[in-house]
């Protein structure tokens, strides 16, 4: 399977210096705003080709970047989605909150509706430093959730999360320095 439009979007992404972190503004990532049909189709086909190896109870994804792709995949495979939301400080009812620190920001994520014994696939847009995925995996494991795999559109950096957690972490495009 080839991904010419996705590869072009990765190469052409604007790079922004954000607190000494080089943030790439990918069209398919959390700061992206416009996606061509061709990129959507390539991403859908790429994620589905990976996802079809598993049979989760549901898909887990985070906002703002991954939930669009998690929703698309959940719809395609006929499974529910559980979205990990960024918290709204004005809503004090959120109890399952974890602090997330990435290479470029700090935010709080809200984990709800997870039950011990659930079996899931995590869908993310980009795995950069690996900090978001690490937080998700640690939190879900602490709740007794079985993680079948984590999928992403793009993986870069030098994380070793698949070795640490012994779960498959699979990406359409993998740019890591192996």
Overview of the structural elements:
With 178 residues, the protein is an alpha/beta fold. It has a single domain, classed as 3-Layer(aba) Sandwich (Rossmann fold), CATH 3.40.50. The protein has helices at residues 4-11, 37-51, 67-77, 131-142, 161-165; strands spanning 14-18, 21-25, 58-62, 81-86, 97-101, 106-110, 119-127, 146-155, 169-174. The strands form two sheets. It has a seven-stranded mixed sheet with strand order 5-6-4-3-7-8-9, sandwiched between helices. β7, α4 and β8 form a beta-alpha-beta unit. α1 crosses α2 and α2 (37-51) crosses α3 (67-77). The radius of gyration is 16 Å and the shape is globular. The model has no long low-confidence stretch (mean pLDDT 88).
Please outline the helices and strands.
Blueprint: H1 4-11, E1 14-18, E2 21-25, H2 37-51, E3 58-62, H3 67-77, E4 81-86, E5 97-101, E6 106-110, E7 119-127, H4 131-142, E8 146-155, H5 161-165, E9 169-174
Parallel strand pairs: 3-4, 3-7, 7-8, 8-9
Antiparallel strand pairs: 1-2, 4-6, 5-6
